[in-house]
Amino acid sequence: MMNWQALPLPACSLAESPRYAHGGWAWVDINTHTLYRLNQSDVLNTALDNTTLLSTLHLPDEIGCVLPTETKNTWVALGRQGGWLIEGDTCTLKLNAPFDSSKHRFNDGRADQAGRIWISTLVDARSPATAALYCIEAGQAKLKINDLIVGNGLAFSPLGDSVFLSDTRHKCIWRFDYSIETGELSNRQLIKQYTEGTARPDGACFSADGSYWVAILEGYRLDRFSEHGEFIESIELPLAKPTMPCFGGAQGNVLLVCSAQADEKFPNKPGFENTSLIACETGFKALSENFANPAYLV
User: Fold this and answer.
1) Which residues of the chain have pLDDT under 50?
2) Bridge partners, residue 109, by sequence
């Protein structure tokens, strides 16, 4: 059992892409075009009376994913218009979207150990399956996997030699072997097909022990798999629509989960009614974020 704590942070319409890097936390509210940055490692004891700790930035695009770089206040952001570079409070479009932005947007991604930017897209209408997974380097977005609807759950294993990818609308999770040297995927394996009810896989992360943690949207839980794809356990959540987990904190043992806004059909549990972010201490440790190389955008 985990002792989840509702975090006294601004409620979000669609909280996504939580990251821990450079001693602080960041996440986006996709629907309101807002980036939140908490300049404090201890998210469980946030001093809200100190407004210098939490900053907000209005984004010029519908950003689905942010990635830290080696520079503390520099982020790669990926949205409907393409790839952006955030430097402090300045946002500059560096890479135009490689898709029809009237029907698609970038959704979920990670950097690999070489700094390549991996990012999936989604189809606004959720049909047909014209979304994809791209790898961005040398100013080009190279198509790697097609026939997706809502690409999600991208995460690299601790050694970087395997990758997990989910599709929220196809309700499945795949595992691939991965070559850091060449940036190529191989040996695609379906490790989970969700079939019951509305529960479906969303964003995900790895912990340092090699566990893959995936948020189950409208499922009130996280599912945990081994890095080889075997199901291990489900972890109950007080949130109806978790979107993505993230490990971090000074000791690396804090698990934060963000969510989409609950509704009458899928309400959060009592005490968490209007909560967008929860966290707790765990016996697991964070896998440090790979830093995106912003030079790959241009």
Assistant:
1) none
2) 119
Cα–Cα nearest to 202, from 149, 162, 253, 250: 149
Structural domains of the chain sorted by starting position, each given as residue range(s) with its CATH number in brackets: 5-297 (2.120.10.30)
Give dist(CA 99, CA 135) in Å, integer: 13
> Which amino acid, one-letter code, is at 86?
I
DSSP assignment of 98-113: SS-TTTEEEEEEEE-T
Provide the sign of the torsion angle of the four alpha carbons 42, 44, 45, 47, taken in this order. Answer: positive
User: What number of residues does the chain have?
Assistant: 298
At 183, list the tokens.
């940036």
Residues that are catalytic: 202
Query: What six digits make up the tokens of 93?
Result: 């479009």
DSSP track, 15-38:
EEEEEEETTEEEEEETTTTEEEEE
Calculate the CA 83 to chain-centre distance.
Answer: 16
Question: What is the DSSP secondary structure assignment for residue 50, as one 8-state letter?
Answer: -
Q: What is the pLDDT of residue 1?
A: 76
Pairs from 265-273 (Cβ < 8 Å, separation ≥ 24): 266/218, 266/240, 266/241, 267/240, 268/238, 268/239, 268/240, 269/220, 269/238, 269/239, 271/6, 271/238, 272/4, 272/6, 272/238, 272/239
- CA-nearest of 250, 219, 238, 241 to 279 is 238
pLDDT of residue 90: 98
